[in-house]
Amino acid sequence: MEKRLLWGRNREFYFYDMYVERFLSSFYRTGKIIDTLEAVASGFPPGSMKKRIEKAWRGILTSKEVGDVERTALTFIEAGFENPFLLVMHQVCLKAEDLGKDAKPILRLLMRLRSRLMDKTKDSFRKRNHISIEKEFQNQFFIWLSFVLLYLQEESVYVAIYRSYDDAPELIQPAVKSLIFALKEHPDEVTPYDDFFREYPFDLIRSVMLYLYSVADEKQVDFENAIYEIITEKVRRKGRRNI
Fold first, then answer.
1. List of residues 6+ apart from 115 with CB closer than 8 A
2. Where along the chain do its domains lie?
3. Which pLDDT belongs to residue 239?
């Protein structure tokens, strides 16, 4: 019974990993959710996951609604694999297409981080306990950070943070608002960055925020390698394979 359960979980992760890899590479090339889902579905092995992807793609293709049909389609897919990395990937691509931004630097970052950050179990981080709330904060931080990095390709750090406020996930939006006000008062000081999420002792978040402070005066920041090194070093030190 245990072997059968383990085999089922490994099989589930195999399809999940395949979906993430193909989605990243396809969106990198097309920049469109609808074209990405079509490409992913066309080469996916037969089974329930392939059917789910195809249904999501057809939902966009045949929809007569005006609105977030792509978001609805990706949410439908996420119900099959409730994993933080998947949520981050989808949110980044949705926002990039919506803004008409070049997502390739962030996609390259996600491609490099994929094997390190994906959780091999079906994550139930939405459960309301202390540990899962911490994980959810970190997941939502990474979603917000991805939006900041999208804006950072053309804007300063402060403007990128300011423009990201409306898109920030609900749990961290108050912290982003406080950061914006603090930066208005003390634009050249490290304190606003260092105080971000001060009530939660997340080394990864602290390191990323200090990196943003270090490049606050630069234009067209090449963040890909720096963020990759920060995250992989923190993961290596903790000996864990998630954010």
1. none
2. 1-81, 92-243
3. 60
For residue 243, give the DSSP letter: -
C-alpha separations of 159 from 66, 144, 148 in Å: 30, 14, 9
Q: What is the pLDDT of residue 14?
A: 84
Tell me the C-alpha distance between 171 and 173, whole Å. Answer: 6
Question: In which region does residue 47 sit, left (phi positive, over 0), alpha (psi from -120 to 50) or beta (all else)?
Answer: left
d(CA 122, CA 83): 6
Which residue is it, tokens 């609805």?
Answer: 72
- Tally DSSP H helices, then E strands, for the chain: 12, 0
Instruction: Indicate left, alpha or beta for 77 from its phi (over 0: left) and psi (-120 to 50: alpha).
Output: alpha
pTM: 0.81
Give the long-range contacts of residues 125-132, CB within 8 A, separation 24 or more: 125/82, 125/84, 126/82
pLDDT of residue 218: 80
**Contact yes or no for 158/187 (Cβ under 8 A):** yes
Contact indicator for 116, 241 with CB cutoff of 8 Å: yes
Residue with the two structure tokens 């992989």: 232
User: Quick one: pLDDT at residue 183?
Assistant: 95
Cα separation of 142 and 219, whole Å? 22
Mention every residue, 6+ apart, whose C-beta is less than 8 A from residue 17.
114, 118
Q: Mean pLDDT per segment of 10 residues, for the chain of length 243 residues? A: 47 85 96 96 92 94 82 90 83 92 91 71 43 72 92 90 93 93 94 86 88 86 86 74 45
User: What tokens does 103 get?
Assistant: 């997502």
